[in-house]
Specification:
alpha/beta; Aspartate Aminotransferase, domain 1; Aspartate Aminotransferase, domain 2; 2 domains; seven-stranded mixed beta sheet; three-stranded antiparallel beta sheet; 12 strands; globular
């Protein structure tokens, strides 16, 4: 381990005791995140409600600026959300399903991507699920065949949560634009894992959160809406922070906020804002390009080792095609995860899969330790 790796690991106290390979579920709390939350607690304790005006509203707007920087967006194109589910509900509320009823979702997508639109079927939405031929990737031609003049939107992941495959959202956006449909991208698994410019991508909407690669913990998510799309949108899922002037306290008129702000809801979770800003600051210091290189090297070590052990790998074997998500088929994945946990290696499970996800602060030695423990688990039969 070199000096750089030691500095990276020192930011995460959990790394002293555990091999933490569950970063695509929740990155552990960095030291600076804990320090910022403690600052929030002091402000709350010492100032009470005055902290809103002296500190917290400023932190809220600073987070918007931080997120815009991460995404390559303008600040008025970014809304701060409590979670991605709420963001998608807001987006789903904007479409006129009497004119274009169809919404296309992949069978590899996270459940919320489908649920948000299934919930508006009473308003006329018709959700069509396209099927992955290999359960790893979704070829663009599958989407292209499904999108027609009746399609309001495609809602799909930038990176699939069970396979780590990186989707070409720029080309998909071009397909959607050509056919008159909006593209809604769930980027929870991607933002912070590799360089990305939302303007260059051409997507209409993008949602994500801070608890994974952005290292900011739960309680904060974000919604990007391209400026022209945002200004035309009239979400029916609204909150008092989503109006032009929340502090006018006008109950009788709904004046939508500028740009993406109109998608915001109610009073935000301030402690989560402090943690989120700390995580984004840390990402800027390390550099997303560095993160990407580390992810490729560490995850490839896992994939190569798993292939050598004859595991069935459910992710792309080429590091350029995936994030740091590595998934291995297992008949009883939770039992395997529990066995690894007992040995100090923290992973996760999804139906039929063991999921490992290193971050930049992990080491090659830790990948080897995980592989050493995985080897006997592959041979274990399912219990009756």
């Amino acid at each position: 381990m070199d000096d750089q790796e030691r500095r990276w690991r020192d930011e995460f106290p959990i790394a002293a005791d555990l091999v933490y390979l569950n970063n695509c579920s929740l990155t552990p709390l960095p030291r600076r995140g804990k320090t910022r939350i403690e600052r929030f607690l002091r402000e709350w304790t010492e100032l009470g409600g005055r902290a809103w005006y002296d500190h917290w509203i400023g932190e809220y707007e600073a987070l918007r600026e931080d997120l815009a920087g991460v995404l390559g967006a303008d600040r008025d194109e970014v809304a701060i959300e409590p979670n991605v589910s709420a963001a998608l509900v807001g987006i789903a509320s904007t479409f006129d399903y009497t004119k274009r009823p169809k919404v296309i979702v992949s069978d590899l997508d996270f459940p919320t991507d489908g649920h948000a639109f299934l919930a508006v079927t009473p308003r006329g939405a018709q959700v069509q699920f396209v099927r992955s031929p290999d359960r790893v990737r979704m070829p663009l031609e599958v989407f292209e065949r499904a999108i027609d003049e009746r399609t309001a939107a495609v809602c799909t992941g930038h990176v699939y949560f069970t396979t780590g495959w990186i989707q070409d959202v720029k080309t998909l956006a071009e397909i959607c634009r050509r056919k008159g449909a909006r593209l809604v991208v769930d980027a929870y698994q991607s933002i912070g894992a590799f360089p990305f410019d939302v303007h260059a991508s051409g997507v209409d909407y993008l949602v994500g959160g801070t608890l994974k690669w952005l290292m900011g913990g739960p309680g904060i998510a974000f919604l990007y809406a391209r400026r022209d799309v945002a200004e035309a949108a009239r979400p029916s899922a609204v909150g008092w922070w989503g109006v032009a002037d929340p502090f006018a306290f006008d109950v009788e008129h709904l004046d939508p906020g500028k740009g993406a702000r109109r998608f915001e809801y109610g009073t935000p979770a301030v402690a989560a804002i402090y943690a989120a800003r700390a995580g984004i600051e840390l990402l800027r210091e390390v550099g997303v390009e560095t993160v990407r290189l580390r992810h490729m090297a560490l995850s490839q070590r896992l994939v190569d080792g798993a292939v050598a052990q004859s595991w069935t790998v459910r992710c792309p074997t080429n590091a350029r095609e995936r994030t740091a998500i590595v998934t291995l088929e297992h008949p009883e994945p939770q039992r395997a995860v529990d066995t690894l946990r007992a040995a100090g290696v923290i992973t996760d499970s999804r139906p039929g899969l063991i999921r490992l996800s290193p971050h930049y602060f992990n080491t090659e030695d830790e990948m080897d330790r995980a592989l050493e423990l995985l080897a006997p688990l592959r041979a274990q039969p399912a219990t009756a």
